[in-house]
Amino acid sequence: MSETSSGHNVNNDDQARLGRNVVALGWVAFFGGLAQDMIQPLLPTFFTSVLGLSKEFIGLIEGSLTTVVSLMKIGAGYVSDALGLRKAVVFVGYALSAIGRLGFGFVGSGGAAFGLRLTDGVGKGLKDAPRDALVAGSAGGRKLGFAFGVQRTLDTLGSVAGPLLAYWLLRQWINRPNPYQHVFLVGGLIAVIPLVIIGLFVRERRTAVTKQPFSLAILKGSFVRFLGVMLLFTLGNSSDAFLILRAEDVGISATIIPVVVALFNLTSAAAAIPAGRLADRIGRRRAISYGWLVYVLVYLGFALTRAAWSIWVLYALYGLYYALTEGAGKALVAELVPDARRGAAYGLYNASIGVMALPASVIAGALWTRVSPAAPFAFGAILAFLAYIGLQMVPKATPQTL
Predict the structure, then answer these.
(1) How far apart are the C-alpha atoms of 240 and 41, rounded to whole Å?
(2) Can you give the pTM of this predicted structure?
(3) Is 389 left (phi over 0), alpha (psi -120 to 50) or beta?
(4) Which of 54, 61, 278, 334 is most buried per CB count within 10 Å?
């Protein structure tokens, strides 16, 4: 048996419970992703064809959503650290998202749709950082990559199943007066399942919590350097909508695009657990480095390709990049930050990625319009390679820096 830092024994039952915690949180991510991706692809058409909203108003809704999610991610991390109640914060976050999604089954105006999207955004922002902290606290240091790989796999499988289920339901209900809202009702009901799992199966590991005021004191040492490198990388990582536009530009038909995206999700899901184990074996920093090199190749491929068939290969490699980096990045945060501050650290980490997505996409759009469709991908590849170099310069954490 092993000993905790406080001297208490951790028996096999405790270890098994912590393993079940990771699996339970994985299924929370699966059903949350399933509900989200049942609804998300249908919203643009619903906004225009059913609610009659303008493109400008749709942009306001979705832009505000992104901002709210990013801000809430920071606040949620600090709140979960200060209260020591990460499970409760995660539960509230999923509850608000369920309300936001279920409400679309009854919405009849743009104002109501705006309110529901913001409710969903608050929920999404609340849950991510404390959920990641729960996973990190439950996994144990040597299994962090594997634990986040499980999360990534189940989350991505939900994202594969969601659009397919939505497509099948629309086919079944196509002759009903408003098939979209029927699908939204089903998605909203599925969004309740994570609440049941959290309430019945997730157990919070009680640890000593240092209650601290809101502070940016976490921004120091290796963590802040890693965050800076991530910001550089993300500035070149524009919305995946540009990948779809580029695929269409070289000859992939719009009707085939969902199948290509499904290939990406399946590749990412299939590779997530092996990539997590690899990160545990060779180190999270090296796994992220490999993933960023794959990203450089993918974006150079999107910049240079002229053949439609190559898009399938590039999307599969893009899924491999996600598998190598997403779980490893979160595991590296846990290495660089002490447990008492991990909620805040994950909040800043997740929020920084979300905030940088806006300027990244604006730059990509300007490069596409003013230079060429290949330019955004060349720009992204260059910044990714610079970030790769920067990552090698981030010092490893030591007990003193923690």
Answers:
(1) 13
(2) 0.65
(3) alpha
(4) 334
Nearest to 198 by CA among 2, 53, 32: 32
> For residue 83, what is the DSSP state?
H
- Which residues does 281 contact at the CB level (< 8 Å), separation at least 6? none
Distance (Å, whole) CA 86 – CA 81: 7
Residue 151 buriedness (CB in 10 A; 0-12 / 13-18 / 19+): buried
Strands, DSSP E only, in 288-340?
none
Q: Residue 130 is which amino acid?
A: P
Model pLDDT for residues 31-43, shown as the tens digit of each residue = 998 998 888 767 7
The type of residue at 354 is G
Going by the DSSP 8-state scheme, the letter that residue 9 receives in this structure is E
Structure tokens given for 167: 């497509």
Q: Which of 273-277, 311-315, 336-340 has the highest mean predicted lDDT (pLDDT)?
A: 311-315
E strand map for 9-71? 9-10
The 3-state DSSP class for residue 180 equals: helix
